[in-house]
Structure formats: C-alpha cells, structure tokens
Amino acid sequence: MARISPRKRQVVSYNEDSDEATAKADRSSSTSSKKSKSAPLPSKNTGKRKLESVAEVEQGSQDTIQPKRRKPKAKTEESTMPLAERTPVSSLKKLMYIGAHVSAAGGVQNAVSNAAHIGANSFALFLKSQRKWDNPPLSTEIRDLFINNCKEHKYSAAEHTLPHGSYLVNLAQADESKASQAYKGFLDDLERCEQLGIKLYNFHPGSTGGEARPAAIARIAAQLNKSHKATKSVITVLENMAGAGNVIGSTWEDLRDIIALVEQKDRVGVCIDTCHAFAAGHDLRTPDAFNKTMAAFDEIVGCKYLKAFHLNDSKAPFNSNRDLHANIGTGFLGLRAFHSIMNHDGFRNMPMVLETPIDKKGPDGKTVEDKQIWADEIKLLESLIGMDPESDEFNEKAEALQAKGASERSRIQDQVDKKTAKDAKKGSKAKAGTKRKKKSQGSDEESD
C-alpha cells in the first residue's frame, strides 16, 4: 500500500485532475530543490513529499550534509480513521455492492483508499483529468499501486470498479476531426482500464448536435465497434440520460438501438442512473411502478445488458428532463424506490455507485465536501436490504428524509412549474400566429 501523507487531503470533486495534481506536486518539489544551496541532495522519497531541507553540520575536520529532521505532524483521527467500517457483503441478505464516486486526486491508486475510507464495497472514479483532452500516460508505478491497493483492501477491480468517462467525449460527433479526438480520448480510457484490470467502463452516449438521431446512434455504435477491436476485454457501459436537448440515451429505445448495432454484444452493457431515469419519465417510486419500469427495460433493452447502477434521488419532479441529483430519500423518488432496488434479486453483484451531493457550508462560510454523507448513505441503503417497508422503522426513516428535502423539492418544483407555464404560453402564441396566417391566406385567395 502507498504511504499515506499526513497532509490535509484534497476536497473530492467529480471534476478532478488526478494526473494534473501529481504534476503540480512534482513541480513544487522541483522548485524546492532548486532553492536549496547545498549541492548534494537526499535520495528521492517515494510518493509526493517535498524534499527535506538539508543543512551543513561540521564534524571534526570533515563537513557532512545531513537532512534536517522535521517532527512529523500528528495524523488526525479524521484523516486516518475510516468514516465507516465496510460491511462484509456476505453478511447482507443480498449481495449488494454499494459505494460512491470517489476522488482519484494524486493518482488512481488513491481512489481505493478513499473508497475504503467511506466504507464502500464498490467505487467509481475518473481515470484521468476529465477537464482536458491531453493527459500523461498511466505510469507502471501508479498501475502497480492501484492493483496492490485493490488486493490489500480486497476490492475486485474487474467486478466492482466502475470508472466514469470524460464529459468531453461525444461519440455521436459528426465532425470528422472532433469525432477522431473523441475516439482517441475514449480509447485511451479503455486501455487504462485494461492496464488496471478493470472490466467495466461507464460513459454518456453523446449528443446528436442537432443531427438526425438514427445517424448519431449509428456513429456511436461505429465508434464502439472500432474501440472493441482495439482492446480485449473492457465492457463499454452506456449510461441512461435525463433527456434534455439533443442528448441521446433518455429512452430505453435509444440504448436498444445502439446495442443492436454493436458487433460484440458481450462488450456492451447499460448502467441505470435512477435520477436520470426518473427525470426521463421512467417511474420507480412505488413497487408497481418499479416493476413496470424494469419490465419495460427488459422487454426493450434486455436485463442481460444491465451491468451497474448510479444511485441518486432527484431534486426535480417526474418527467422533468432535469438532471439534479438529490441525497437518498430526500428527493421526489423517495426511500421506497431505493428499497425496491436494494431488494431486487436481479441486481446482486453489480457495482451500485452513489453520485449524491456532499457539499455543505463550513464554519468559515466556504463550501466543503462532507464524505460522511456518503458513508451514512451506504449504511442506509444496506439497512434497506430485507427491511419491511411497512414497518415503523422504515416509515420513520422515509418521513424524516422527505422532511429534510422538502424546501429544495419545493424550490425546484416552482422552477419547473414556471417553465411549463412559460412554454405553454409560448406555444399558445405560436399556435395563434399560425391560425392568423392561415386565415389571412384564405382571405387573399377569396379576394383573388
């Protein structure tokens, strides 16, 4: 296992530049060494610690250079102790592997310890900076640290790690040069997966860019076919989307049509994001609605393609096409939806990843990330396995969480209602204008 620095860890972000963070640390070390007036330097440490300052010490007739020893900072309990102990999955009534999308700042190997820190049994991460196209290659050192950390913490990288693709990549891109750039970035991630022993790779299908949907879907499938031939084993996992604008993947039919054009069917799958599904009109709130939605998915796409879940409640109401993640039980989906998921036999052994918000205001008024939220949500979801949904325990939890999210739901509902009214008014005006135009044309024909 890599040595853990006692310094304060970076705040988790889904927009992290993991390799960039490493580069910054390296530059910092380089600057520090240049400032040193002593010629010989101590041997380079493993990890990212800055080189210790050196001082001359006279001993008799010889001058020797020794590193100045600094008193190590005491590690705080918060930085060294797990926020929650991992629950042995074998002890659960159903084998549900619940985790979160954790930080990979400083290198992908750190995602493993970050997952263990919150008591996760699965995890997602970015394999490189998702803010830029060009990233340094994965080093053998980082690769080995990731693999060793997974072994030490007993994570199956192949089964329960779900990297998330870059938001820059659009495999439906029609422009030739942009499509080539997207493919290059996509393939690079798949190659990193294979180096790390990761089997599943989640990504957003893409956007039509205003082009015809069937043609855009065909381009996505063509890029997948090309990437499958260039790699050996990674399963490319399509994520369903909320349905805004030209985005592809909000309907089960979109996912079906992409898969239909993929040549190696064993190299493609689907990840259901519960917030996206709900926002796109796939209801999960009651047992009956949940069963109907999953039956429709099975009929249209096929449950054999379901590989993973993103577990998120929704701040936005049903069929609103708004992608606004809420904490479990606090949104419009409610706790009952997640009870159905946690107790469905067909979802066993899949990575189930939280992407819920963990931002909160610190004592100084600045926004900080509270990873305890994820640790608590993992335990909450695990507690739902086998729980009676009619019990007082369940109802008390559900009511408390709904009360907690009431103001935010009301705020977003108000936004949606205003937009709906505005769109309806705009539609009425357009309809009235069309009628007046037709009436005017009719009058002109009569006068002729």
Automatic annotation (TrEMBL):
<feature type="compositionally biased region" description="Basic residues">
    <location>
        <begin position="427"/>
        <end position="440"/>
    </location>
</feature>
<dbReference type="GO" id="GO:0005634">
    <property type="term" value="C:nucleus"/>
</dbReference>
<feature type="domain" description="Xylose isomerase-like TIM barrel">
    <location>
        <begin position="113"/>
        <end position="383"/>
    </location>
</feature>
<dbReference type="Pfam" id="PF01261">
    <property type="entry name" value="AP_endonuc_2"/>
</dbReference>
<dbReference type="GO" id="GO:0016829">
    <property type="term" value="F:lyase activity"/>
</dbReference>
<dbReference type="GO" id="GO:0017005">
    <property type="term" value="F:3'-tyrosyl-DNA phosphodiesterase activity"/>
</dbReference>
<keyword id="KW-0456">Lyase</keyword>
<feature type="region of interest" description="Disordered">
    <location>
        <begin position="391"/>
        <end position="448"/>
    </location>
</feature>
<dbReference type="InterPro" id="IPR013022">
    <property type="entry name" value="Xyl_isomerase-like_TIM-brl"/>
</dbReference>
<feature type="compositionally biased region" description="Basic and acidic residues">
    <location>
        <begin position="406"/>
        <end position="426"/>
    </location>
</feature>
<keyword id="KW-0378">Hydrolase</keyword>
<dbReference type="GO" id="GO:0006284">
    <property type="term" value="P:base-excision repair"/>
</dbReference>
<feature type="compositionally biased region" description="Basic residues">
    <location>
        <begin position="1"/>
        <end position="10"/>
    </location>
</feature>
<dbReference type="InterPro" id="IPR036237">
    <property type="entry name" value="Xyl_isomerase-like_sf"/>
</dbReference>
<comment type="similarity">
    <text>Belongs to the AP endonuclease 2 family.</text>
</comment>
<dbReference type="GO" id="GO:0003906">
    <property type="term" value="F:DNA-(apurinic or apyrimidinic site) endonuclease activity"/>
</dbReference>
<keyword id="KW-0227">DNA damage</keyword>
<dbReference type="GO" id="GO:0005739">
    <property type="term" value="C:mitochondrion"/>
</dbReference>
<feature type="region of interest" description="Disordered">
    <location>
        <begin position="1"/>
        <end position="85"/>
    </location>
</feature>
<keyword id="KW-0862">Zinc</keyword>
<keyword id="KW-0234">DNA repair</keyword>
<dbReference type="InterPro" id="IPR018246">
    <property type="entry name" value="AP_endonuc_F2_Zn_BS"/>
</dbReference>
<dbReference type="GO" id="GO:0008311">
    <property type="term" value="F:double-stranded DNA 3'-5' DNA exonuclease activity"/>
</dbReference>
<protein>
    <recommendedName>
        <fullName>Apurinic-apyrimidinic endonuclease 1</fullName>
    </recommendedName>
</protein>
<dbReference type="GO" id="GO:0003677">
    <property type="term" value="F:DNA binding"/>
</dbReference>
<keyword id="KW-0479">Metal-binding</keyword>
<dbReference type="InterPro" id="IPR001719">
    <property type="entry name" value="AP_endonuc_2"/>
</dbReference>
<dbReference type="GO" id="GO:0008270">
    <property type="term" value="F:zinc ion binding"/>
</dbReference>
